[in-house]
Amino acid sequence: MCTNAQSIAGHHVLIIERLGEMSEQGEQVEHLVRATIRNCLTAMQTMGVDAGEAVEMICRMLESELALLPQDRQRLRNVLASAQVHAEYLLLTEQRAMH
């Protein structure tokens, strides 16, 4: 996989983590998480990465971050999990539009 695509995904995962930290402070970040995921996937596709591969890459990174987080950081965990679900949703939406 292209290291540029991995870099893009990694930067967006960092943004999502920061949004998760903001959510721990009581901030409403759901719309920003969805926009970040959408922007990440768009940037990766612009680089020629297949939508399925892009979603797989970002979901794998999000899962790795979730595995490292303690259970008591539930708001941050929820933000990472919702980002993953939104990425999968966008892929499903795109696949449906193609058929």
Descriptive tags:
99 residues, globular
Description:
The structure is a single chain. This protein has 99 residues and is mainly alpha-helical. It has helices at 3-24, 30-46, 51-68, 74-98. Helices cover 83% and strands 0% of the residues. The model has no long low-confidence stretch (mean pLDDT 94).
| Overall form | globular
Outline the biggest β-sheet.
none
Our measurement of the CA-to-CA distance between the termini, rounded to an integer number of angstroms, reads 26 Å
Report the sheet-strand fraction: under 5%
Quick structural overview:
The chain is mainly alpha-helical. It has four helices and no strands.
Secondary-structure topology with pairs:
Layout (H helix, E strand, L loop, with lengths): L2 H22 L5 H17 L4 H18 L5 H25 L1
Helix pairs in contact: 1-2, 1-3, 1-4, 2-4, 3-4
